[in-house]
Amino acid sequence: MRATLRPPTALTGLFAVAATLPLTTTCTALARPRDPVADYVQQSFQVSRFKRAKADLNGDGHPETFVYVTDQDYCGTSGCLLLLLSPRGATYKVVMRATAVQLPIRLLPTSAHGWRDVGVTVAGGGITRPYVARLRFDGRGYPGNPTIPPAVPLKRPGGTVLIAR
């Protein structure tokens, strides 16, 4: 019996070409999850270097985010910029913008106007003895400078360290 050869069709031609190609695997990188805090900080303050921590300061079940900016444009001999962002829908409200802040940042056990007090380290910039200053919510926000009133130096700060050195 004699076999008859048929001319290849387009489909069998594709299989022939595919059979000659090396076997490879393709991995598609998973998309990095969106980081709304990083997006907000980068767009609003043009910074990319920061440390952060979350804590629910007002008891609403939605944690606020502490952002300690470490870009050199936001730091000096007395410390760096500390932001406290409270979620507002798809964006954030800046509840604190404090300068001259050193690490560590603490969540204190006390509160005012329904918001927890924050402890920040004050040092450098002419201050010879570092200390922790208590920043209290005044109904609208937190003080912007921990070196002057209404910030209060604490003898025994306690609380929970949120952002360490």
Task: Summarize this structure as a short list of keywords or feature phrases.
165 residues, single chain, 2 helices, 9-stranded antiparallel β-sheet, mainly beta
Number of domains: 1
Q: What oligomeric assembly is this protein in?
A: single chain
- Name the shape in a single word: globular
Share of residues in helices: 10-25%
Elements, N to C (H/E)? HHEEEEEEEEE
Q: Average pLDDT value?
A: 87
- Tell me the Rg in angstroms: 28 Å
Give a count of the beta strands, DSSP E runs of length 2 or more. Answer: 9
Q: Uncertain segments of ≥5 residues (pLDDT<50)?
A: 11-27
Structural classification = mainly beta
SS field, number of helical segments: 2
Could you explain how this protein is built, in words?
With 165 residues, this protein is mainly beta. The chain has one domain (36-163). Helix content is 13%, strand content 44%. The protein contains 2 helices and 9 strands, in the order H-H-E-E-E-E-E-E-E-E-E. The protein has helices spanning 10-20, 36-45; strands spanning 50-55, 64-69, 75-76, 79-88, 91-112, 115-124, 127-135, 152-154, 160-163. Strands 1, 2, 3, 4, 5, 6, 7, 8 and 9 form a 9-stranded antiparallel sheet that branches. A hairpin with a 2-residue loop joins strand 6 and strand 7 (127-135). The protein is globular. The termini are far apart. Residues 11-27 have low confidence and may be disordered.
Provide a short characterization of the protein structure:
The protein has helices at 10-20, 36-45, and strands at 50-55, 64-69, 75-76, 79-88, 91-112, 115-124, 127-135, 152-154, 160-163. By secondary structure, the protein is mainly beta. The protein has one domain (36-163).
